[in-house]
Each structure stands twice: as structure tokens, then as C-alpha cells.
Amino acid sequence: MSKGLCELYGLPVAELKQLLGQDLEADRVTLMEIHGDVARSTHSWQRPGVAEFSAKQQAISLAKATVSLSKLDLFNEDSLFLTDPQAIAASFPQILACYGDDYQLNNGLLAPFYERGELRGLVAVENLNPALNLDFNDLIELTADFVGAKVAGKNLKEQRDTDVLTKLNDRHPYLAKLNFYQKSQTSRTVGVAFMDLNGLKKANDEPGHDAGDKILIAAGNLISQAFGRDYVYRVGGDEFVVLDDQSSRTEFESHCAAFEKALTQPASPSISIGAEWCPDSHYLREAVERADRKMRRQKKDFYK
């Protein structure tokens, strides 16, 4: 095993694939994650001069592959080395269709990885140098195991940080962002909006909690459409906060105006909002508190 491959572990996935590709003198190393019957490229490295095709590999149907990826463990201790270009083309027609006529795939080394016994993806190395004195299968199997652990860890983090009902960021990443900006040496501008649903208790008490859940989901979708899903956090039962650290003040105020206009549409949920512009993210907590107070004044007016 080369020195580079001995240093694989502890690296980010992107650097790991680059190192693997360089050591195997390959054209490309791709991480394909699998959800149901569809695979998509989530990380890709290619040597200089080789075109990048990951954008075209976002909806690869496994049903059209003549090699069953779920049965790769029948080959070479959980990996498969294909060396016949015609067999590769016949086995993975969608992959080859992405490349066009300018790229010839002469060999491919594949290794799957699993999460709780379920196939979750594979690592693919294309056009490696077969003359190298290396155990290709062992190397890629170890790499796939490592990448699989990284992907599983990412999925666990997403589950921890995502609100189960609305699929938005939950309170944990919200508090993490507040703490980050409080301690950061650099400062950013942040658009802050604090929101609270009106009448949710009544919806839960009368039609029932299913009706209340539908209102919360609709509210989350409406807020996401106006401000962008990445910046929206569900921080309480019926409370949402927007922390937009990418938009200018003009853009943020435009988002607020679009949101308030959306609230006037028929069947839109009733939401009180308080918006605040924070020119210095070191004081983000204070800006959130001001936005909260504005929201509560609007909510008080609503119930009057």
C-alpha cells in the first residue's frame, strides 16, 4: 500500500477520493448515494483534463442497470472490477450516456457501502492503471467502508438537526449558529425574522392535532419559499426563526415583503412576524430578542 493510501483515514471524503484517484492513476472517483431505486453522484473527483459529469448523474435508475448492485458481495469480497468496455456499457447504460463519445470507460472498480444492512451507495473508480502493484479490491473496500461510515454519520447529524414534522432546521442548529456568531472573530450582517402561528391552539383543540400539524407544515413551506429553507429554523411548537446571513439588507427586506404578501392569499396560515436587521452578528442574540418583541406586539394586535 502506498504512503498516500496509508494516510486515507482522517481526511474529508473529497480529499480521500482525490488521494485514491491519484494513487490508482485513475481518471475519476465517484461517490454514488442510493435512495430507493435511484442513485446520484454526491462527490466526484477527476484528474486534470477529464470532464466533470456529476451534474448529469443525479437520477440514475438502478432498475436499468443489468448488474445488480445489491448482489455485489458475490464478487471479489464485496467489490467488482470490470475490465471489458462492452460489458461496462451494457451493464450501466445510463452512466455511459452521461459521458458522450469523448470519454472511453475501459475499466471500473466498484465497492458498495451499507447502513444498518441496507445498501446506501457505492464508490466507483474509473480507468485506473491495472499495471500497478496494488491490491485494488482491498483498497476500494476499505475506502467504501470509511465513506459509508461518513455518510451514516452525516445522516445521523441530519436526523438530529432536522425537525421531524416540517423537515426544517430545528432548535439545535439554531442555537449553534447563535453561539458561533457570538464567539466568531469576524462579523456578518444577518436578517432576522421571528414568527409565531396565530390560532394553532384552537386548531389543535377543535379539528384535532392532525389539522394543527398540517398548519405547521404549510407555515414552514410558506416561510421557506420566501426566505430559503436553509435559513429557517423551527425553534418551538409554533415558533419559527429566520437567520439569513447571505442576503443584503435590500434583499432581506424584499423577502419580508414577499412573505407578508403571501400571507394575504386565500387559505394561507395566519402568522405574526417581527423582522430585524442585524448589522453586526456579534449582537445576533439581541437582534433576535428585538424581532421577538416586534412579533409579540403584532400577535397582541391580532388577538384584539
Descriptive account of the structure:
This protein has 304 residues and is of the alpha+beta class. The protein is 42% helix and 21% strand. It has helices spanning 3-6, 13-23, 85-91, 93-99, 136-161, 171-183, 200-205, 209-227, 249-262, 284-303; strands spanning 28-35, 38-46, 60-61, 80-82, 108-115, 118-126, 190-197, 232-234, 239-244, 271-278. The protein has a 6-stranded antiparallel β-sheet. Strands 8-9-7-10 form a 4-stranded antiparallel β-sheet, sandwiched between helices. β8 and β9 (239-244) form a beta hairpin. The N and C termini lie far apart (74 Å). The model is unreliable at 1-10 and 68-77 (pLDDT under 50).
Number of beta strands: 10
Alpha plus pi helix count:
10
Structural class: alpha+beta
Q: Kindly provide the radius of gyration, computed on alpha-carbon positions and rounded to a whole number of angstroms.
A: 25 Å
- What is the terminal separation in angstroms? 74 Å
Shape: elongated
Q: Give the low-pLDDT segments.
A: 1-10, 68-77
Largest β sheet strand count, sense and barrel closure: 6 strands, antiparallel
Average pLDDT, to the nearest integer? Answer: 79
How is the largest sheet built, in terms of strand order? 3-2-1-6-5-4
Fraction of residues in helices?
40-55%
Provide the succession of SSEs.
HHEEEEHHEEHHEHHEEHEH
DSSP strand content: 15-25%
